[in-house]
């Protein structure tokens, strides 16, 4: 169930045939979650210049399904000023049964090998798992890494076209007479050439 009270199946309703970014959080977190949410908010805006809203989705899954009900999830969205603008890719804040949560965490490798650490949700890693279901290409990186590099890696993995995959990467141009090569970068929010 998400912050708007909608119920859905993760794969068939949200992931299938899309580029996806998934992270785990909980609304009462005072550790890495607030910073991760702000990183995703900025990356979502940047990637919207390269991906249509229909081809991409961000999914934040609560690690505290017994506390994070519809109202708590909606309040979290409001507090962090996460836009529901149709020009941006969807960002779903969701909670599920504890059993489904454990299945998803294990499937994505988002768990601690030490069961004591794994049981303490305040010890969860601030990682973004992202990929492209159409191309079956997936990766995970820490949310706290250099944002420009994170955005470029996400484009590379999530992109459907060469333009999406290599946005922000320098391209070499050969002059018509083949006498010189120059570097040319496409304007991109990822490179800081466009407003945030």
Name the features.
single chain; 196 residues; alpha/beta; five-stranded mixed sheet; two-stranded antiparallel ribbon; 7 helices; 20% strand; disordered C terminus
Task: Write up this protein.
The chain has 196 residues and is of the alpha/beta class. The protein has seven helices and seven strands. It has helices spanning 10-15, 33-47, 70-79, 98-108, 115-119, 147-158, 162-165, and strands spanning 19-25, 56-62, 90-94, 127-132, 137-142, 171-174, 181-184. The strands form two sheets. The protein has a five-stranded mixed β-sheet with strand order 3-2-1-4-5. A two-stranded antiparallel ribbon has the order 6-7. Strand 1, helix 2 (33-47) and strand 2 form a beta-alpha-beta unit. It is globular. The model is unreliable at 187-196 (pLDDT under 50).
Based on secondary structure, the structural category is alpha/beta
Give the helix level as a range of percent. Answer: 25-40%
Tell me the strand order in the biggest sheet: 3-2-1-4-5
Sketch the topology as an H/E string, one letter per element.
Answer: HEHEHEHHEEHHEE
- Describe the sheet with the most strands: 5 strands, mixed
Tell me the β content. 15-25%
What is the number of helices?
A: 7
Average the pLDDT over all residues and give the rounded result.
87
Shape annotation: globular
**Oligomeric state of the chains present here:** single chain
- Uncertain stretches: 187-196
Computed CA radius of gyration, to the nearest angstrom: 18 Å
Strands, count: 7
- Alpha carbon gap, first and last residue: 31 Å
């Amino acid at each position: 169930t998400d912050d708007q009270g909608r119920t859905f199946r993760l794969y068939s309703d949200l992931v299938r045939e899309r580029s996806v970014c998934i992270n785990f959080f909980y609304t009462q977190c005072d550790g890495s979650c607030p910073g991760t949410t702000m990183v995703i908010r900025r990356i979502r805006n940047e990637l919207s210049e390269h991906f249509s809203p229909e081809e991409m989705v961000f999914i934040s899954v609560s690690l505290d399904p017994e506390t994070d009900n519809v109202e708590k999830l909606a309040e979290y969205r409001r507090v962090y000023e996460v836009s529901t603008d149709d020009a941006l890719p969807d960002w779903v804040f969701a909670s599920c049964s504890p059993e489904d949560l454990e299945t998803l965490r294990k499937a994505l490798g988002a768990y601690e090998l030490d069961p004591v650490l794994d049981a303490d949700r305040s010890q969860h890693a601030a990682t973004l798992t992202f990929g492209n279901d159409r191309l079956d290409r997936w990766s995970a990186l820490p949310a706290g890494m250099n944002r420009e590099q994170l955005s470029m890696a996400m484009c590379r993995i999530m992109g459907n076209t060469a333009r999406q995959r290599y946005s922000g990467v320098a391209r070499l141009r050969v002059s018509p007479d083949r006498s010189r090569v120059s570097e040319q970068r496409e304007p991109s929010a990822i490179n800081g050439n466009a407003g945030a």
